[in-house]
Amino acid sequence: MNSGILETAKSDLDRNGFLDIAVDPKLDLFVEIEKLKKEKNAVILAHYYQEPDIQDIADYIGDSLGLAQEAQKTNADMIVFAGVHFMAETAKILNPTKKVVIPDFKAGCSLSDSCPPPLFQKFKEQHPDHVVVSYINCSAGIKALSDVIVTSSNARVIVESFPKDQKIIFAPDKNLGAYINKVTGRDMLLWNGACMVHEIFSLEKITRLKHQHPEAKLIAHPECEEPLLRMADYIGSTTGLLKYTREDDATAYIVATETGILHQMEKASPEKTFIPAPPDNSCACNDCPHMKRNTLEKLYLCMKYEMPDIIMDETLRLAAKKPIDRMLEISAAAGL
Ligand code: SF4
Q1: How deeply is 126 buried, as exposed, middle or buried, from its count of CB atoms within 10 A (0-12, 13-18, 19+)?
Q2: Which residues contact 254 (CB under 8 A, 6 or more apart)?
Q3: Quick one: which residues bind iminosuccinate (predicted)?
Q4: How far is the CA of 249 from the centre of ligand 1 (A)?
């Protein structure tokens, strides 16, 4: 490779979010990535919302809780995080001495962006008698302002670990917070944030789909809005939804979450039919544009050149680690 091209790509990294270098189309990227894994003692952790090729080359595929647990116990020297920025940040918080790379640094999250730390700090100061429970889909700055982190797999258990009369702020997802309020009977104060993917499902189109497929069950992620959750036959985290479709005896499901999870559902239950719940726009399915910034080419490049990587201020890292450790301890004690 011409070193000038690499230098230009590196200097454009901030603007592009990834190394913009042409990859030889004759390369078998699956073979090359496997080689790089061995050479660099690297592990690829991928979220269920990644494209199928990335899921197929990953060493571990999971939701936020599974990925955080895997990041905590890995012996690899380099963690390649195929997900969005706050997830790679969480891996770095847990592994300060390891290199954590991400295929596209600009793979962000609308939910995380809906809760800027300076505004949240002011909100928190207005409610000094509240503890702060934050969903893992937030920046390190918000984690550092929290008492405990939760994922959709463990939110209920963790909220219930507080005494009934403890006042709680829940951030940043108002839909997940409202759902947890409902199932626990709590009255947590909710930050007004939401995920763009889970908020745009069309109730009208889903109702039509239910009529067309009366045998199909509607399953939904708790980041979806209340009216949709009320229609659902099952509500659960991404891992919970996958497990449900594996163990349940229905033959078809309308899946109200990001479409990436359908790849694992179809692999686990090839005899069943999975229909992505449609959004309220002209698309047939609901992709997260942030998650889908990552591609196999960008994954290969970030492993080869070990960039972009996550760099974090140590004071911030230590403050953000405390509530994550607390989550992992409560989850382990609850057998999650
Ligand atoms: S699906 Fe929603 S919460 Fe998940 S990364 Fe995309 S925008 Fe964020």
Answers
A1: exposed
A2: 206, 209, 210, 213, 216, 217, 218, 219, 275, 276, 277
A3: 47, 64, 135-137, 152, 221-223, 238
A4: 29
- Token digits of residue 52: 């199928």
Residue 137 assigned ligand-binding role: yes
For Cα atoms 227, 229, 232, give the angle at the middle one, nearest 5 degrees: 120
Residues of the chain with pLDDT under 70: 1, 284
User: How many angstroms does the Cα of residue 39 sit away from the middle of ligand 1?
Assistant: 32
Domains and CATH numbers, the chain: 3-108+291-311 (3.40.50.10800), 111-195+317-333 (3.40.50.10800), 203-276 (3.40.50.10800)
For the beta sheet containing 216-220, the strands, ordered from the edge strand earlier in sequence to the opposite edge, are 234-235, 216-220, 252-256, 273-276
Which residues in 242-252 are b (16+ Cβ under 10 Å) and which e? bebbeeeeeee
Tell which phi-psi region holds residue 55, choosing left (phi > 0), alpha (psi between -120 and 50) or beta.
Answer: alpha
**What is the pLDDT, as a whole number, of residue 292?**
94
Q: What is the side-by-side order of every strand in the sheet holding 99-101?
A: 60-62, 42-47, 78-82, 99-101
Closest CA to 259 of 294, 235, 304, 291: 291
**What is the residue with the minimal CA distance to atom 6 of ligand 1?**
288
pLDDT in the model for residue 335: 86
pLDDT of residue 315: 98
